[in-house]
Predict the 3D structure of the following.
Amino acid sequence: MEPHLYFQSDASELDKKDALPSNREHFHIPVNKNGEETIYFVGHSLGLQPKLAQTYINDELQNWKKLGVDAHFEANKPWVSYHKNLAKPIGRLVGALPTEVVVMNTLTVNLHLMMISFYRPTRKRNKILIEGSAFPSDLYAIKSQIAWHGFDPEETLIEIHPKNGEDTIQTEAIEELIAKEGNTIALVFISGVNYLTGQVFPIKKITEIGHQKGCVVGFDLAHAIGNIELQLHDWQVDFAVWCSYKYLNGGPGCVGGCFIHTDHGSKSNLPRFSGWWGHQKATRFQMLPEFDPIPGAEGWQLSNQPILLLAALRASLELFDSIGMDHLRSKSKRLTGYLEYLLLNRLGSNISIISPENPEQRGCQLSIRSPQIGRHIYNTLSRHGVQLDWREPDVIRLAPVPLYNTFSDVYNCVKIIENIKTST
Ligand SMILES: *Cc1c(COP(=O)(O)O)cnc(C)c1O
């Protein structure tokens, strides 16, 4: 059906008839001062709490209480291998073998660890290509790595920006740049989904063109994991990193993760920063002086794992697994399409949507720019109990998340601001 016809139904009808029934009841929805549920459009910053998270955390608190240190081996899900329970569902989300992924640390820490192994600059080939307006933490990490290798970030970092007047980066521009400068680029490191515009980058294509020129190609999946479908193994991506508190709903500061392609997982010549949790399990507790890594991504683990955080993440991953990312992604396109439709119809020329128009080139987030009434829109929505996000100088980011947001959320949000142009 034509989108505009489809979207002419009542929001509550759309909620009722959608091919994927809502999973909202599995989450705690924040409430405002009057005890009413907020419209939560900031899943791009902190995903909501799955109701089962508390149960799973409590289970581990009980194990700690009753078993003490023995819970490492005697708990129902022994702590020593608790992270392994998450490798399969994470592998399904990113399109990887369970041995290619590991849940550990936080994103920026993982980026540093991956760069130790995968950014091996030489005099001839030392540059790093990233997208312009990359997330600041990535920039800080990357510049510090460049400097640590003795190179000048000013000369070594190439940032690719949208062409004049555009908000998103064309794949052809990336292609041209790599064709021209690829021989000097050691690492291409791009986001799967840009945090500001919501643009989805063509991971497979970028990996291909990077590899043709001999570059290592890695991705930051902070805004991609749990948002779009990924096939990292088949796409031959070298490595990737992510956090789990955004679309993965792991909770504040929850454990992130890494993907390391199986082609690299057992390479003994790759330098790495090692720790005891990366050592072969059979001999780990013999406390031997020589490091003997577990083959695959697990070999990059440093420390024993934060079980309570992993327990929270497990609750969310079970939901992803039971529903399937393919179903979530198609619902996501319908929800975000509905938001776009209503915004364009009701606010029209008062705003511009800087996220790509093509649903394949964006995730669930729409970024809106309105130099005139943007602040007013933001303030009005906040006052009416919509949780949303403002990025200086003038961008509003709204993310209808298919796991817990509804068509009614979208409708009610736009209803609050549809007359705003007259009330300024
Ligand atoms: C959210 C986000 C981070 C956060 O990193 P942490 O180390 O987990 O705090 C880093 N990079 C990008 C692109 C992000 O979106």
Remarks:
- The chain is about 40% helix and 10% strand.
- The mean pLDDT is 95.
- Residues 106-108, 135, 137-138, 191, 195, 220, 222-223, 243, 256 surround pyridoxal-5'-phosphate (CB under 6 Å).
- The first helix runs from residue 3 to 6.
